[in-house]
Amino acid sequence: GRLEKPALGLLVGGSTDAFQWEDDEFSDLIRIVNEETETHDLHLLISTSRRTQKPVEDLFEAAWKRDPRCKLFVVANRNNIDGVVPAILGLSKVVVVTGESSSMISEAASVAERVVVFLPSRRKRSSKIG
User: Would you place residue 31 in the very low, low, confident or very high pLDDT band (cuts 50, 70, 90)?
Assistant: First the structure.
C-alpha cells in the first residue's frame, strides 16, 4: 500500500548459537527507534521472526502495538504473513535489522535504500557476521 510519510522498517530476530542478546539491548533498540521515528517523522513497520523469543515479542508489542506511528506490527510466531518482509523492505526509507542473521541482513541490503544493523554485545568469533 501507500503511506502518507516515509517509514522506518524494523526486522527483529533473536538469539542464536553465535549471538546472545541481553535483555537491555532490545530496550535500547526500542529507545533508539523511537527517537529516530520522532526526530524524522517516520511511520514504523515491524516484523519479528520465528526465532524471536516470546519475552522479546511482548516487549516490542508493549512499545508499539498501539502506537499511531506503527502502521504494521507482525509477530511471526503468531501470524507469519507471506510477503511481509519484502513489503517492509520496499516501503521503508531505512531498515533496522537485528544482526544475528546473515540472510536477513543480505535481503535487507539488496532491497532497502538504507540498512542499519543492530548487533548484540555478546557474539562468538566463529560467527559469519561482525
Answer: very high
Cell numbers linked to 118? 543492530
Confidence of residue 44 (pLDDT cuts 50, 70, 90): very high
Cell, residue 105: 541482513
Choose among 91, 105, 104: nearest CA to 44. 91
What mean pLDDT is predicted for residues 84-98? Answer: 95
106 neighbors 125 (Cβ within 8 angstroms): no
Residue 97's DSSP bridge partners are: 11, 117
What is the per-residue burial (b if ≥16 Cβ within 10 Å, else e) of 61-89?
eebbeeeebbbbbbbbeeeeeeebbebbb
pTM, 2 dp: 0.90
CB 29 within 8 A of CB 121: no
Q: What number of other Cβ atoms are within 10 A of residue 33's Cβ?
A: 22
